[in-house]
Design a protein that fits this description.
By secondary structure, this protein is an alpha/beta fold. The protein has two domains: about 5-160, Thiamin diphosphate (ThDP)-binding fold, Pyr/PP domains (Rossmann fold, 3-Layer(aba) Sandwich), CATH 3.40.50.970; about 185-380, Thiamin diphosphate (ThDP)-binding fold, Pyr/PP domains (Rossmann fold). Helix content is about 40%, strand content about 20%. It contains 14 helices and 15 strands. It has helices at about 5-15, 30-35, 50-60, 75-90, 110-125, 135-150, 200-210, 225-230, 250-260, 270-275, 280-285, 315-320, 335-340, 370-385; strands at about 15-20, 40-45, 65-70, 95, 130, 155-160, 185, 215-220, 240, 265-270, 290-295, 300, 305-310, 325-330, 350-355. The strands form three sheets. A seven-stranded parallel β-sheet has the order 7-14-15-11-10-8-9, with helices on both faces. A six-stranded parallel β-sheet has the order 2-1-3-4-6-5, sandwiched between helices. Helix 1 packs across helix 2 (about 30-35) and helix 9 (about 250-260) runs parallel beside helix 11 (about 280-285). The radius of gyration is 21 Å and the shape is elongated. The two termini are about 35 Å apart.
Length: about 400
């Protein structure tokens, strides 16, 4: 058994500055220690997949990230682990508990996952080892993890059994980074016809105009949004999230937290936003004034044939406002984007949902660079413009 502070400090010395995840009783000492540590940042994610994406964003911003979760949460994290961190080659350290440990009696809902946790990690091509349980083993374990992450640019995992970490004094209050905000909500009149709405191309061109390469980055969700953005202007400050639908906003949060002087603009679709709406709360709680979240809402899954979503029945701006965004806008004209991107004095993250026309005149081309090459270019750009660099080795 080790003390939480011993492991936290060993991680901090090796550049792990952002911790995020979803609690498990086995993880309580680590979480409490991470929350109270003055040199670390803790982000309470809505689900484990979002935690992986946020830790990945921190890595792109130049800081190692840790995503911690109960092994049941691997189910929520499979998609970003297989189509985000693997595809784009982004290193994240995972700490996964072994509930349903075959050696222990546990609750029935953990039995199957306990039996397959290690095989799941192997199927995801994530090297793993037992969580260190002796002080002398902590440093070498982290050195092995860092070596793999630096050389392969992919995740590494520790599997934690019950009783591995000694109890830690409980945190008495919420972390000071969580703060209440006064939110301003603006809604604009609807167009007389959906055909009068702007196209996605028009919206993306307006976003490109407002995001100069020396001051901003743009992270675009999977599907036509990223492909069309790349066709308009394939810039080094743009990242096209080709998979992990719904994770672009959490990825952007991670980048924004470790690159506070860089404006981070996330461009989502309504389907992606609906898929992981819990991220609205996390962004509203932890996001800073440099984080901008835009949902281009055409009320359909455009890139898979135009199947309808349920977005016509909800207010994304209302959700964002309720989740603590400092500015939340929605409307059907490009002026919504102008107001959002030009607003000053906003003390917190800002959000806008722009209704756009469904469909596209022609299928947008795919980027000429591979996803890994686009990501490497983006990371290098963030390093140069944001003044940060990834801890440890360079991307291979």
């Amino acid at each position: 058994m080790i003390e939480a502070a011993e492991l936290i400090e060993a991680a901090r010395e090796r550049g792990f500055g952002l911790w995020t995840g979803v609690p498990c009783s086995f993880l309580t000492p680590l979480i409490d220690c991470a929350i109270e540590h003055p040199a670390l940042r803790w982000v309470a994610s809505a689900n484990e997949g979002d935690a992986v994406a946020t830790a990945a964003g921190a890595a792109l911003g130049g800081q190692r990230g840790v995503a911690i979760m109960q092994n049941s949460g691997l189910g929520n994290a499979v998609n970003p682990l297989s189509s985000l961190t693997y595809t784009l080659r982004i290193p994240v350290l995972l700490i996964v508990t072994l509930r349903g440990d075959p050696m222990l009696r546990d609750e029935p809902q953990h039995e199957l996952m306990g039996a397959i946790t290690e095989r799941m990690l192997e199927l995801l091509r994530i090297p793993w080892e037992p969580f260190p349980t002796e002080r002398a083993a902590i440093g070498p374990a982290f050195d092995r993890a860092c070596k793999h992450m630096d050389e392969e640019s992919r995740p590494y995992a520790f599997v934690l059994r019950k009783g591995s970490v000694a109890p830690h004094r409980k945190v008495e209050s919420a972390p000071q980074r969580i703060r209440a905000r006064e939110t301003r909500v603006e809604r604009r009149p609807q167009a007389s016809s959906p055909l009068a709405r702007p196209t996605r191309e028009q919206a993306l061109r307006r976003i490109v105009e407002a995001t100069p390469e020396d001051r901003a980055v743009v992270i675009a969700t999977t599907g036509y949004t990223g492909r069309e953005l790349g066709a308009i202007a394939d810039r080094a400050n743009q990242l096209y999230v080709v998979g992990s639908m719904g994770c672009a906003s959490s990825l952007g949060l991670g980048v924004s937290l470790v690159s506070p002087d860089l404006r981070v603009v996330v461009v989502d679709g309504d389907g992606a936003a609906l898929m992981r709406m819990g991220s609205f709360a996390t962004l509203g709680c932890y996001g800073g004034e440099n984080l901008v979240h835009i949902v281009l809402d055409n009320e359909s899954h455009d890139s898979t044939g135009g199947q309808p979503t349920v977005s016509s029945a909800i207010s994304f701006a209302g959700v964002a406002a309720a989740c603590g965004h400092a500015l939340a806008l929605e409307g059907e004209d490009l002026g919504v984007l102008d107001t959002l991107l030009g607003a000053t004095g906003v003390q917190g993250p800002r959000f806008a949902a722009l209704k756009i026309r469904a469909g596209t005149e022609k299928e947008p081309p795919r980027p000429k660079l591979s996803p890994e090459q686009v990501c490497a270019r983006f990371e290098e750009h963030v390093r140069k413009v944001g003044g940060t660099s990834r801890m440890g080795g360079a991307r291979s």
